[in-house]
Amino acid sequence: WDEPLIFELTSPGERGVGVPVPDLPVPDLPAGLRRSEAPGLPEMSQPHVLRHYLRLSQENLGVDLNVDVGQGTCTMKYSPKVNDGFVRDPRISELHPLQDESTVQGVLEILYRLEGLLKEISGMDRVSLQPASGSSAIYTNVSMIRAYHAARGEGDVRDEVITTQYSHPTNAAAPKTAGYKVITLMPDADGYPDIEALKAAVGPRTAALLITNPEDTGIFNPRIEEFVRIVHEAGGLCCYDQANANGILGITRARDAGFDLCHFNLHKTFSTPHMCGGPAAGASAVTEALAPFLPRPTVEFDGSRYHLDDDRPESVGKIRPFYGVVPNLVRAYAWIMALGGEGLRAVAETAVLNNNYLISKVLRIRGVSLPYAEGQRRIEQARYSWEQLNADTGIHSEQLGYRVADFGTHYWTSHHPYLVPEPMTLEPTESYSQADLDEYAAILAEVVREAYEDPETVRTAPHNGPIHQMRGDSLDDPGTWAVTWRAYQRKLA
Amino acid sequence: WDEPLIFELTSPGERGVGVPVPDLPVPDLPAGLRRSEAPGLPEMSQPHVLRHYLRLSQENLGVDLNVDVGQGTCTMKYSPKVNDGFVRDPRISELHPLQDESTVQGVLEILYRLEGLLKEISGMDRVSLQPASGSSAIYTNVSMIRAYHAARGEGDVRDEVITTQYSHPTNAAAPKTAGYKVITLMPDADGYPDIEALKAAVGPRTAALLITNPEDTGIFNPRIEEFVRIVHEAGGLCCYDQANANGILGITRARDAGFDLCHFNLHKTFSTPHMCGGPAAGASAVTEALAPFLPRPTVEFDGSRYHLDDDRPESVGKIRPFYGVVPNLVRAYAWIMALGGEGLRAVAETAVLNNNYLISKVLRIRGVSLPYAEGQRRIEQARYSWEQLNADTGIHSEQLGYRVADFGTHYWTSHHPYLVPEPMTLEPTESYSQADLDEYAAILAEVVREAYEDPETVRTAPHNGPIHQMRGDSLDDPGTWAVTWRAYQRKLA
Amino acid sequence: MLAAIGAESVEEFYADIPDSIRLHRPLDLPAPLRSEAELVRHMDDLLSRNIPARLSFLGAGCYRHHIPAVVEEVANRSEFLTAYAGEPYEDHGRFQALWEYQSLMGELLEMDVVNVPTYDGFQAAGTALRMAGRATGRRRLLLVGPIDPDKVSKIVDFVRPDHDVEVLDGTEDGWQTADLVVGADVAAVYIEAPNFHGVLDPALPSLAERAHAVGALLVVGCNPISLGAVAPPAAYGADIVCGDIQPLGIRMSFGGGNAGFIATRDEERLVREFPSRLFGVIPTVVEGEYGFGDVFYDRTSFALREEGKEWVGTAAALNGIMAGVYLALMGPQGMREIGETILALTRYAQERLSEVPGVEAPNRDKVSFADFVLRFTGERTAAEINTLLLEQGIQGGLALSDTDALYCVTEIHTREDVDRLAATLQEIVK
Amino acid sequence: MLAAIGAESVEEFYADIPDSIRLHRPLDLPAPLRSEAELVRHMDDLLSRNIPARLSFLGAGCYRHHIPAVVEEVANRSEFLTAYAGEPYEDHGRFQALWEYQSLMGELLEMDVVNVPTYDGFQAAGTALRMAGRATGRRRLLLVGPIDPDKVSKIVDFVRPDHDVEVLDGTEDGWQTADLVVGADVAAVYIEAPNFHGVLDPALPSLAERAHAVGALLVVGCNPISLGAVAPPAAYGADIVCGDIQPLGIRMSFGGGNAGFIATRDEERLVREFPSRLFGVIPTVVEGEYGFGDVFYDRTSFALREEGKEWVGTAAALNGIMAGVYLALMGPQGMREIGETILALTRYAQERLSEVPGVEAPNRDKVSFADFVLRFTGERTAAEINTLLLEQGIQGGLALSDTDALYCVTEIHTREDVDRLAATLQEIVK
Fold first, then answer.
1. Is B249 part of any domain?
2. Which spans are transmembrane here (chains C, D) (predicted)?
3. Helices (DSSP H) in B271-325: which residue ranges?
4. How far is D107 from chain A (nearest CA, A)?
5. C:D CB pairs within 8 Å
6. Which residues in chain D are closer than 8 Å to A467, comparing Cβ atoms?
7. pLDDT below 70 — which residues of chain C?
8. Are residues C98 and C147 in the same domain?
9. What is the CATH number of the domain that holds B133?
10. Nearest of A25, A35, A13 to residue D341 by alpha carbon
11. Considering only residues 124 to 153 of chain D, which have any Cβ-Cβ distance to chain A shorter than 8 Å?
12. Which of C310, C327, C344 is the last residue of a domain?
């Protein structure tokens, strides 16, 4: 399809859906509050709206359509369709969050049970399901850390948070937003966060360490207990970003390594679909010591009825309206219930097996390397480098990625900054078969062959996509960026 | 996508969905009734099955995706998505047909009301909603005709049914199946069924006339009352195939022209989706005289409760298990209720306007003609001929159609035999805008330009589809046809 | 647009319709529900008067099974839901999905030829019998019961022009083998596995020989969901197999989910008698690419009008695609398990329920699949018992007579469901 | 696969995990529900203990509107539902759909810059205020009430490091204009249209001037579904507009449907303060083709970690696509009608209900949109009245105090629904 912009499809007088118009007078609005001109929305019939978006959908690549191992750190796994049915059921989708508690016992029970499941999976004592995403959960944890130190009279003293370079950017950005000074540990020669740097950084100003393990390189830091000990000894808290938990479910838990807080991305590890970038769902898990600071309300059970407890005086308060991204919480609950403890462990082991298998295939391709920790295994993902290929051919990793898209799949590089040069991050999860991984590796190999033998084809990619190469960087120039049709018409049309 | 056959995707040991296995003994089956070898189904994980079918779906062209005016006679109209929701609602989808009547009053009321709506739309006295499709409704009507004459002692005498060449093939095939000799009226020079031939054909052996109006040429036969009169005078019944009712809703009705029976295709005129070729739904409407022969059961209302009446001694019996293709009956009911009487008439007028607009655009293209009834309007569709283009370029209508598919839409020729040489039948319905029709005509014009200027491109089409030209006619040879993977492996692999 | 056409008004396009048959008033229909919100409210009011049974023991030709979510995900795709009769090129996906359905059913049935689904199992039986009649050129059809009387009604109406139908309903729940006299005028013997009462008749494997001995064909109706555990009729010599695919992943929808299949061996004399579309695979000009098209199109009424076999038209294609998705999800292991689960539960239900005083399971000594007969020997009729069960939130089976009813269990029932029925019957049956 | 890797067992891959932190036992979780059928049954049991209200008057930040079927048809597409963070080339559809969402909202809001949705309206308000703080470099934030106290809680927690928050809640349902003293230390004045009590404050159009006079920004939270009838805040001088798009075609889902928007004029000093992704349009090498990408990526934490603005991560993109579909379906006419319908019904409800003895509508003299306050002057509290309403099948409004409750009507309510509430209250309110 060469689908136009929706504003180009307007056909004056057409409408997509009718609205009930009761025979009642419309009250007069106060001066200045009546809209003077109708909004410049397109006028379209219902089939035209539908056709437009169906075509756009066909120009998009979901997990369901491809071997989606290329979005490393994102844990692109299959989300069972049956779970979508539960959340589309009116008995979830049509519930108002303020309904009488007697009419929502089922959903409260699901929330309560899900907290219980995540307590066992993490080893923690309480879990809040209110955060809207992983980043929101990181912020929630930081907010609780802040409240914890404040409650102990150390709120003003402890104004530093330590994190690591290979943790998700929000581990740096959220504490900064919460008012902390951020110290970032760089990787040592083996790719582990530099423990000497940690020792140098900790002290009475340390509020917390925010760390991921395995980090986005897929390398598990075996000295994690020591990291925790060092921070604890300095009076700081330790907060575990479990974005990469998919390879270690049932293998090792945040509490077992001594952490005080952790969070899960339910849309990664627990399979809720990624939805073009959310809504997601996060879970913040804490030890008893931090439980008083959890967001309100919590879900409680008195032996016969589930209810919401909003009376939590030390709580950091609300993180989100009402009680979290409930549809995703329902999906995550169902996913865990279908698997059980051994099923979760099988998920982890399969994901790790798939990753190490893919590594063995990819490393046979010319021009690629796997920086750090040579000879050691990776857990559930791996960050590769095309530095050699770039040196040989001038082709950048991004360009390889554009060409890979021509073959019906894709990959991304990784988060900035590119400490690993010309990066590519692959995370195959448990959802793919050996044949899928072979197919993916074969596509990479073919594109690399082109890079060496016919680099122009790679350099001018994509060729089979819905659009061709974009021009220039007008998006960084206030004179040409256009975030809306209004702006586009004014600046570029 | 270059999607393999599903059997090529097997991965032994994988499963798509689990089955509950109770802890109960499996009884021994009688000798010879135990399956000895497991069926050779593929073994696939759930995401693999889903991915396969999603990719196949993207290799298919639904009404929702394209300007689907090319399947003339099929009335490809937009089916409002909201109606799909009603039939997916468990209060329809999870109803067993034999449930206690007290628990299915809602669906019975819908069926009863839908009969009422169709009575008014057709002018008839009773309507059966049991037929599974238009063809099934034609057969049902023929079966009632047979029962009617039998009840009057003329069953053996009246053994001929008259139909017309431009009616759907089932108007010939169903009476033949029901044991009738079939007489087909050919079109006269103006494209009308030859009235002289009718006069010659009718007589004491005439059971019925099965006729469409407008026929698949889109031409309305203005002497239809005379046809009915001639047949009635000979003691035959008149049965109106209203497959082409979309252009005449609220304009003229079967009863008004004197018919005894008629049928509607609810999946055409009344918008239920076409589903790759069914399930559809048919409605057989009759006058009081034929009502005793309607399929059983009928839906009745006693003033307080809806119930099924299976006690109909003269009924032709069951046409289908239970009560018809209920989901489509629900959709059709909702569609009519959203439109009302004036809405239906607006549907007809828009469809006719669209058709005549498209005719005016298409006839400007080189090499096309509109046989019959020159200078007269068409109702809701038109059968064109590429005879001139074929003479000029050697390109056949089918080949044009293959090339049109490269542009993201399509057309078909028409039913056999091709009385109109090199036919193309277009029926734009009410669902398309002027811009859509312009786009469609522009595609036709472009392909015709190619046919004249670059015929090889047309001759070797398709070029942009999921597959390329198919070879040979192995499908007519018992030695090479392969209806299943089993047969394919044996014969061709 | 009118100007572009050169017309004054839409009325011009209706010039050919005589005034005498014009409707000179608006259709007298209810006022339109113009907004989606009002329509939804209207429909919701109607739908709220339907109450799906949470615990039901109804079967009898329409079965509640678990529908894997992926089946409906695929079926609800706009691309499949709203497509129709496009050509193999731009509708490649539909052709492939239906050919794969045929192929998956072929594996289940162990037969090489399977049609694009026809309307329902009734139609499939009627057509299968007429196919047998055309292939043999004979008039008599022997139907071995018990068969759903509604299905017999349909068959009789459908075959009437060419065939005499004889129904051998036997006594009780079976027929006496000795009663089956297959004469040389017989086109086909038709029997079901399981039959209307759920019984898998031990005589099934012996019938092919008796039919074939006089040149008749054996036509078997079967429930495809049994075939992972139960032998496919082809294994015991059936020539034509037919039935309903509703159990394979299609909702009951008040009887709207039924769709029929017909299968044969790959013999030209049988293949040429199919009225339905049969898709076949065909190579394209590109090596390794598959195309699909109609096998032997000149069988059909699309090609030859009344000279084709019966007729073909819009049938039940999407149900075929759904059944294909279902079979692909289940795989050989899933089909075996579901067959065995239902066999086990049907046996358990008969045993458990016949422990209730006043309840008998007359076919306990045979093997039943899903459907089974209960006999109430107390004072209350089967229909009265249903009314009392409904008060307890249970939908009982189909009343066959005052004493007998046809109950049904599938994999969605648990042992506890059966126990609850037993406990409730214990209270009710006096 | 192990052999291909050269590993003995999966254990090898875990060699780096010290034994001391290994879990040496299986996770103690409930036995798995291995079959979909069992899972569905388990979930159905839980879901059966939820009872959506057929007639409800709850709003207060989560609204029941009619959701056009096409909205969910699009949102449920696998291609959108399961995609994530692909590049503009192979995820062109997602980029375009989100850019179109931004654009459609831009038309509704009359603003040139709209973000890819953030988590919810609470977060949108918090971020909008911090954007204002960063743009002005000032500490004080003035919040003009009534505002949902939960939202205030979120804002206070979120802006704490950089801002002092002052909430001016006024008396009754408004604030006294004289109370609003905007000093030169004020970063932003925040107010809502309609406010928490549903009122469209007549003072709104006068605020921009007062804020701008001292260099403060005016930040307005609004309900986007009102804006076909009600003036967009940009029209009366708002600098930043924020709110929740849940009303635009997204189900309530027990509060799971909320998602936030933030919009500004196209001024670099404001645009650079967005933490969210902002998609922009860009030409490709093929004339007439559009591509999409991130505008000024170096604002974000994706680019600069803690040096970016706040943070960005997975947010609520699909809700944005849904709201876009909703706006495209409604068009200018639909948005005007729905705004007017809700205004009319809100007025009618206040008038009709205040006819009931013991019931007052204290804001009757103002214009309310959707939400409105009822005051019960009898002996029963608002909570007690809710309990009694529930017995009659009606879910009442949110109790704000013993006497006051926040009720809500939208286009899904009919005049008859309001009359039924009035009649029921008449019985209950003593």
1. yes
2. none
3. none
4. 5
5. 20
6. 88-89, 92, 284, 286, 289-291
7. 170-178
8. yes
9. 3.40.640.10
10. A25
11. 130, 148, 150-151, 153
12. C327
Specify the 3-state DSSP secondary structure of A342.
helix
C-beta atoms of C35 and A82 within 8 A: no
Indicate whether C14 belongs to any domain: no
For chain B, list the contacting chains (3+ Cβ pairs, <8 Å). Answer: A, C, D
Radius of gyration of chain A (CA): 25
Shortest Cα–Cα distance, B173 to chain D (Å) = 39
Q: Which residues, 6+ apart, have CB-to-CB distance to B392 below 8 Å?
A: B367, B452
Query: Looking at residue B17, what is its pLDDT?
Result: 97
Is there a domain that residue D98 lies in?
A: yes
**Distance (Å, rounded) from C-alpha D376 to C-alpha A6?**
49
How many domains does chain B fold into? Answer: 1
Residue B117 falls within a domain, yes or no?
yes
Q: What is the pLDDT of residues A136-182, one digit of tens each?
A: 999 999 999 999 999 999 999 999 999 999 999 999 999 999 999 99
pLDDT score, position D430: 75
Task: Give me the number of domains chain C comprises.
Answer: 2
Both D305 and D410 in one domain: the answer is no
The continuous run of DSSP H or E covering A437 comes out as: helix A434-453
Note whether C166 and C276 are same-domain residues: yes
On whether both D250 and D394 belong to a single domain, the answer is: no
Last residue of a domain, one of C294, C327, C360: C327
Q: What range does the domain containing A220 cover?
A: 83-338
Domain that holds residue C341: 55-66+332-428
The answer to whether position B193 is within a domain reads yes
Measured between beta carbons, which residues in chain C are less than 8 angstroms from residue D37? 66, 411-412
D240-244 vs D260-264, strand pairing mode: antiparallel
Q: Print burial letters for D247-265: b (CB count within 10 Å at least 16), e (below 16).
A: bbbbbbbbbbbbbbbbbbb
Task: Locate the chain B residue with the closest alpha carbon to D36.
Answer: B18
For residues D165 and D312, membership in a common domain is answered with yes
Closest alpha carbon within chain A to B79: A47
What sign for the dihedral angle of Cα D170, D175, D177, D181? positive
pLDDT tens digit string along B26-51? 999 999 999 999 999 999 999 999 99
A contact chains, 3+ CB pairs < 8 A: B, C, D
Distance CA A129, CA A332 (A): 11
Do C295 and B109 make contact, defined as CB atoms within 8 angstroms? no
Q: Are C273 and C167 contained in the same domain?
A: yes
A248, part of any domain? yes
Asked if the structure places residue D319 within a domain, the reply is yes
Between chains, do B50 and D78 touch, taking CB under 8 Å as contact?
yes
Q: Say whether D37 and B19 touch across the interface (CB within 8 A).
A: yes
Asked if C205 has any chain D CB less than 8 Å from its own CB, the reply is no
CB-CB neighbors (< 8 A) of B48 in chain A: 433
Domain membership flag for residue C356? yes
HEC sequence for A395-433: CCHHHHHHHHHCCCCCCCCCCCCCCCCCEEEECCCCCCC
The CATH number of the domain holding residue D61 is: 3.90.1150.10
- Domain harbouring C219, CATH code: 3.40.640.10
Residue B315, sorted as left (phi over 0), alpha (psi -120 to 50) or beta, turns out to be beta
For the residues of D126-156, what is the DSSP string, one character each?
HHHHHHHHHHHT--EEEEES---HHHHHHHH
Are D272 and D231 found together in one domain? yes
pLDDT tens per residue, chain D (430 residues)? 999 999 999 999 999 999 999 999 999 999 999 999 999 999 999 999 999 999 999 999 999 999 999 999 999 999 999 999 998 999 999 999 999 999 999 999 999 999 999 999 999 999 999 999 999 999 999 999 899 999 999 999 999 999 999 998 754 455 566 677 889 999 999 999 999 999 999 999 999 999 999 999 999 999 999 999 999 999 999 999 999 999 999 999 999 999 999 999 999 999 999 999 999 999 999 988 999 999 999 999 999 999 999 999 999 999 999 999 999 999 999 999 999 999 999 999 999 999 999 999 999 999 999 999 999 999 999 999 999 999 999 999 999 999 999 999 999 999 999 999 999 999 999 7
Give C 228-287 residues with CB within 8 A of chain D.
Answer: none
Peptide bond into C357 cis (omega under 30): no
